[in-house]
Amino acid sequence: MADFDIEGAVVRLYDDASLTGDMTDEPAKRVLKWAEAQLENAAKTSADEAAFDEAQKHVRLLVKAFNQYIAAQQGGDFEAQQEAVGKATERAAALGYAPQAVAADAFTAQSAEMDEMGAVESLLIMIEGKTDAQAAPKAASSEVTVEDNNAEAPPTYQSAYAASPPADTANSGGSIPDEPDEPEQGDDDSDELKWEY
Hints:
By secondary structure, this protein is mainly alpha-helical. It is built from 8 helices and no strands. It has a domain of 126 residues. It is globular, with a radius of gyration of 26 Å.
């Protein structure tokens, strides 16, 4: 492997404010960190200085396409968003990725309601060619955390059950006791069911 100036390439990437000027801090950091990893990979795989320089060019233009996409999303410019998606997939392919075969207009429509970070993450998933199944474990992990948090909370009607009470709990074998025969004093005007545990 040739001895490329990877440190200089990374410094130039972070120092060029025009590459991420339309992004807020966190999405910009996410894209730059991803781009830094692409430069490091290019340093390992490039056969010579010319190949590494070419990879640097594609990485920088890819970051710029992310920035253009976010700027167009903020301005509601659908056509500019589509153009930025096209540029991003083209540069990603030049870096050796196989972007998902998603039409630019379909992707733009799907990400229209996303916040900036959501749009960045979705664009990264698309250009890296990840499938929904590959992206799913992160979401599944988040759901488990939410369920775990709910399990720790004291059981109440609102958090333990869906919008309506179970139709028949007497023969279900479940752990939900029958409603009390008489309401507690002062509960006559309350719309909320109160079950004793």
